[in-house]
Amino acid sequence: MIASPKLLLADEPTGNLDQKTGREILELLYSLQRDEKLTILMVTHDPTIAREADRMYKLSEGKLL
Fold it and tell me: Of 5, 30, 38, 47, which has the most beta carbons under 10 Å away?
């Protein structure tokens, strides 16, 4: 975050965390998005987290839907 990036790539940022810690990480990411005007590209298998996104794309059998 030191170099003020425009894009943050997050691969399963809550994947191995308990629910409370996972929520804290998501809130941190959302605050960075809002305060730093940061675009976040996040990969998740959790449909609950995916529904919170501004946009959602699905990858199925190698095709982006």
Answer: 38
Contact 13, 29 (CB under 8 A): yes
Q: Which value, to the nearest 10 degrees, does the dihedral of the CA atoms of residues 11, 13, 54, 5 take? A: -70
Sequence letter at residue 14: T
Q: Which residues of 9-35 are buried (b: 16+ CB within 10 A; e: fewer)?
A: eeeebbeeeeeeebeeebeebeeeeee
Q: pLDDT (tens digit, 9 = 90+) per residue, 11-55?
A: 999 999 999 999 999 999 999 999 999 999 999 999 999 999 999
- C-alpha–C-alpha distance, residues 8 and 30, integer Å: 11
Q: What is the pLDDT of residue 17?
A: 96
pTM: 0.83
